[in-house]
Amino acid sequence: MQPCQVRSTGSSAADPRYTFHSIEPLPHLPNPSSARDLLTKLANDPAIRHVMNKHQFSVGVLTELAPHEQPHLLGLNVNAGQAIKLRLRTDRYDGFRTYKEVRRVLCHELTHNVWGDHDNNFKELNSTLNKEVAEFERAQAAGTHYLGSAGFDAPQSALEAEAQAYVLGGSRVLGGASTSSATDSPEERRRKVLEATMNRLRKEEQELEDRCGTSAPEQ
C-alpha cells in the first residue's frame, strides 16, 4: 500500500514545511481504511496544524502502532520527527481509541521533536502545546482571537494555563465525584474545577510518559 499524502486544509499563511508529509496506516491490521481516516483527521486537525506551524514542527510519516506488537506503548517518536507512531486501536482490535485520547498522545509525541527525555523542558513544552490546542479550539468556537481568563487568576505555569483553557473550553469531565459544596462561592467552585482538571491532566500525562517509547538518543 502506498503512503497517503496529506492534503492541507489550513490557512494560506501556514508554511507547508511544517506538517505531516505522509500518513501510513498498517495494511496488515483490520480495517486499514478507518485507520487512514483517523490519521488523516489528526494530520488535518486545525488546532494541530496551528501548533505545528507555530512551533515549526515537521514530521515525515504519521503512522500507527499495532497493539499486539508493542502492547505497552501509546506513542513513539522516531528520530525527532522522522516518524510518529500512535496507538489507534483498542487491545482487542474491536474499535478505535477516542479521538481526543489519541490527539493528546500526538501532542506528547510532537514535543519529542524538540526534547527527548521527559524532563522539565519537555513537560513545559508539552503542557504548552496542549494549552494552545485547547485555546485554539475555544477561540475558533467563539469566533474570536481573544482568550481571557474569565475570573481565574493569571496562570503560574503552562500546566495551569492548559487546565484553564480546558475548563473555559468546556472540557470539564473530571472523573470521580465533585468536590464542590453547596455553600461554595462561584469563585471557589471555579477554583475546585481548575484544581481537579490539573490533577486529571497530571495523571494523564504520567500515563503517557510511562507508555511512551521515545527517549533521548545515547550520547
UniProtKB/TrEMBL annotation:
Residues 200-219 are annotated as: Disordered. GO terms for molecular function: proteasome binding. It holds the Pfam family WLM. Residues 201-212 have a biased composition (Basic and acidic residues). InterPro entries: WLM_dom (IPR013536). It comes from the Eukaryota. Residues 11-202 form the WLM domain. This is WLM-domain-containing protein.
